[in-house]
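REVIEWER CHECKLIST
Item 1: Sequence provided? yes
Item 2: Single chain? yes
Item 3: Sequence as submitted:
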Amino acid sequence: VVMFTILKTAVDAPQTHFTPVDIWTIAARDIFGGLSIGLLFGYIICAFMKRSGDRATGLSNLKILLSVCLVLDITMVSNRLDSSAPLACVAAGLYVRSFGLQHLEHAVQHDLEIVWSFIDELLQALLFLFIGFEVLALNFDVPLLLASFIAIAVSLGCRAFSVWLPLKVMRNCGESVYDERGMVSVLTWGGLRGAASIALAI
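Item 4: Structure as written out by the authors:
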């Protein structure tokens, strides 16, 4: 996500010469700004959830609305401060998951899981629908197809290497790795299901 932001900034301003300091500044602003915003808002939402009572008081829906407002507010603030909204949402989600849900009743946690599972499936369906529209809008020619095949091969190679290297290091350090070859294959192909990069590009 951070690398995408840096490359998009360079593409949007091709006449601007970026120095290594500029690149590190953008990366630090995205990473540390996003994490700080996410943790701050996660703490605030956890405090609200602790004070809003439990399911018996009929406030389960309020906690769900608080979680939705958390994502919307984080996205708005992060975009205004030129920080990474995805990183901020991840940081807030991890904080709420670790320090907020444990203070809620199991029924409320179940309600939150159902709502966010539905939102996740809905957004993924919309994303792949947009991908289909984008494919229909493309004008396929030989250079584009060739570039696509090269990009697929490079992506698979980089993914396989990024999975194989940590497993190799673990094996050399004495850690037991079950079926290393099969694990590399599963993690290489299984990791391609993530659609964050496609969503950012669209």
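Item 5: Key structural point noted by reviewer: The longest helix spans residues 20-51.
Item 6: Recommendation: ____
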